[in-house]
Structure prediction request, 352 residues.
Amino acid sequence: MTEIATGARFESPAAGAEAPPRPGALVPKTIVPLQGLPIVGVVLIGLVVAIASNKLWAVDFFHVVGGALWTGIDLFVGFIVGPILGRLSIPARAEFSARFMPKMMLIMPTLVTVTLAAGWQLGLLKGFVNAGYPNHEWAVASYVVVAVMAVVALGVLEPANIAVLFEMRKPEPNGEVIAKLMSRFVWAAGITGTMQVATLIIMTKLASV
Amino acid sequence: MTAPVQHQSSTPQRALPPVLELGVASLICTLAAGIIVAAQVPNSHTLWPAVVLLVIAAGLLVACGMLMIRIRPFAWRPFRQVWQWAMLAYIVIAGMLEYVFIKDKTPNNVLVMLTLLLVAFAVTVPTMLAFSVARFQDPAAHE
Prediction:
């Protein structure tokens, strides 16, 4: 789950030539965009209905759509958006991040939940998660890949993201703190990208059996 | 030229105990236990490694709590604020996975194990998120 890989540096007025971002003008009122919550609710209700119906198409739909968006967003943000942001001016990076990161905090957990819950149900229907399944080791490999991504996302990226968002809401954000927190995004994006490529290999292998 | 003195005062940067590191270790143990259990479905021949990992994860989580209590001063108000909302989100996430396990009539011993792992997961992540925010808040400003 790559939240954002900007490598951005917020500098104090004394340290840089560019003016620092004015946080009051950049930061949304809430940490998480509340207007997105009803959409998340609808998606989760749809997921519950799909699992309750136990229909192959329904759980396949949620798993494939959720997984495709999760992988696509991770790779796109980590390897396309991130490097572009790294070359933008500091105020531009700050403004983008202030609006982008809250949305990602809503989108990514929803996609991960949908993909994993529907994926487990799909695995049961198709037999992938059954220990006796001939290619079961590929399913276990996918658990390991998801676990690695979960550790990076939940243990590294998400705590940094939320701390940055809170820091940016202060009247006087500390550029050093923000830069320190965001410095970990570069290597985290690399690990997540590698794991997402592994996911693509595993999933296409399982789907081809 | 303005010196960034005010920045330092609003964002305390001090040496704190390794709460986040212990939280990540707890998360790794929880996920590893989950993999061991999930890899054996529908059987449950070898649950003891997962039980050992769960106990370690719980121990690390308790250690996190103990270390945080000893931090003086600490910005508990933002900690609670983030923890409560994150907890709500992770209850929903863990609840969805629990629903799937119950729906699939997972054997009781495996279900208990998975439920405990989800509880550990749903407590560990909000704790890490809340600590990450609170550590950079000025405790005096939140009294």
